[in-house]
């Protein structure tokens, strides 16, 4: 008998999915060792199946994960030391990366080595990144977005894997999505605070997983699905190796962003601080979110006002009167007025002394 029912509401759909997740986790974790054994399968092969891919990935990428977290770009980001232009470049890199990743995931959504990990509604980031790009760059963002060299190499590897070794796509999906569900939430708050982005999410949609109610439970489900993939030990080891490559690609992108940040700081310094006297051209120190910045070159203590403010800790909104004074003195008209004022003052002083 064919039974036609009304389409479930969004809440009902989430409830069913949550129940399915719970049941799947209980099924995966509640089996005794004898039940997990497959009759007729040699002990060696059974041992291979018992090597959980999620654990192999966790242990096998620990060093790479630590190195990625300790790149200068990530450390600066976590401290809130990021310019909006640099944040735009980072978002651009993510856009190209996820465009490639999700293109290959869609291509291999029915492949047995990846199908159980296909969660487009819950995980895919491209649409969210398009909204972020529109907010950060404006309506014609596609004309401005350029794929950097490090990102291009990352994208090429993702396409190569997706088209030739789909089982290795697991490594790239694991590296990106599991990280996004974890540390990504911290980066969202940092970006909103440091760049004064709207709390309503404009510019940080990438970090918002609207269809994942409980990130921890979802990650458990994802790991259970990875562990259920029918892969031999050799393939699992190749996936771990590929995951380390994915971390390496990400570190190359981070290092590239760090170099771009240094260049942006240098350009800001050169625009605001003439090299011959170390003072701001327009009477104000280059700032980031209202705070004076310096790229480590030269000695800002040559500006007495900056040094005094630095000692007091009163930096926000500070401008340097020495630079402003020099800027005024360079104007011929004001030089004449200043000279006349000095002459008048001298005359009055002489008259008063008589």
UniProtKB/TrEMBL annotation:
GO cellular component: plasma membrane
Pfam families with a match to the protein in the record: Heme_oxygenase
Superkingdom of this protein's organism: Eukaryota
Keyword flag Transcription regulation: no
Annotated TM spans: 334-352
EC number: 1.14.14.18
GO molecular function: heme binding; heme oxygenase (decyclizing) activity; metal ion binding
InterPro entries in the cross-refs: Haem_Oase, Haem_Oase-like, Haem_Oase-like_multi-hlx, Haem_oxygenase_CS
Region span, Disordered: 1-49
Biased composition (Basic and acidic residues): 33-49
PANTHER family listed in its UniProt record: HEME OXYGENASE, HEME OXYGENASE 2
Family according to the record: Belongs to the heme oxygenase family.
Protein's recorded name: heme oxygenase (biliverdin-producing)
Species: Bos taurus
High-level lineage: Eukaryota, Metazoa, Chordata, Craniata, Vertebrata
Gene: HMOX2
């Amino acid at each position: 008998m064919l039974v036609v029912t009304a389409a479930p509401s969004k809440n009902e759909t989430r409830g069913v999915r949550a129940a399915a997740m719970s049941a799947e986790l209980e099924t995966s974790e509640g089996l005794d060792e004898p039940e997990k054994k497959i009759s007729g399968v040699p002990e060696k092969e059974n041992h291979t199946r018992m090597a959980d891919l999620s654990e192999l990935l966790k242990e096998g990428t620990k060093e790479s994960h630590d190195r990625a977290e300790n790149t200068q770009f990530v450390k600066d980001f976590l401290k809130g030391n990021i310019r909006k232009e640099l944040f735009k470049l980072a978002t651009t890199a993510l856009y190209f990366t996820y465009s490639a990743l999700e293109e290959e995931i869609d291509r291999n959504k029915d492949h047995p080595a990846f199908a159980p990990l296909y969660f487009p509604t819950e995980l895919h980031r491209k649409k969210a990144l398009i909204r972020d790009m529109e907010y950060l760059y404006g309506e014609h963002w596609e004309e401005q977005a350029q794929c950097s060299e490090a990102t291009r190499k990352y994208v090429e590897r993702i396409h190569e894997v997706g088209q030739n070794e789909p089982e290795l796509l697991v490594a790239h999906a694991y590296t990106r999505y599991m990280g996004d569900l974890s540390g990504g939430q911290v980066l969202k708050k940092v970006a909103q605070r440091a760049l004064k982005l709207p709390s309503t999410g404009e510019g940080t949609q990438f970090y918002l997983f609207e269809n994942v109610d409980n990130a921890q439970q979802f990650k458990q489900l994802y790991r259970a699905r990875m562990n259920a993939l029918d892969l031999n030990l050799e393939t699992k080891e190749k996936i771990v190796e590929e995951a380390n490559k994915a971390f390496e690609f990400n570190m190359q992108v981070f290092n590239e962003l760090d170099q771009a940040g240094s260049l942006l700081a240098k350009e800001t310094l050169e625009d605001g601080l003439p090299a011959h006297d170390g003072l701001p051209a327009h009477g104000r120190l280059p700032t980031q979110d209202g705070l004076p910045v310096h790229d480590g070159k030269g000695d800002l203590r040559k500006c007495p006002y900056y040094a005094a403010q630095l000692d007091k800790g009163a930096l926000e909104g500070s401008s340097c009167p020495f630079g402003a004074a020099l800027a005024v003195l360079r104007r011929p008209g004001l030089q004449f007025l200043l000279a006349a004022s000095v002459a008048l003052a001298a005359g009055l002083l002489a008259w008063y002394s008589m």
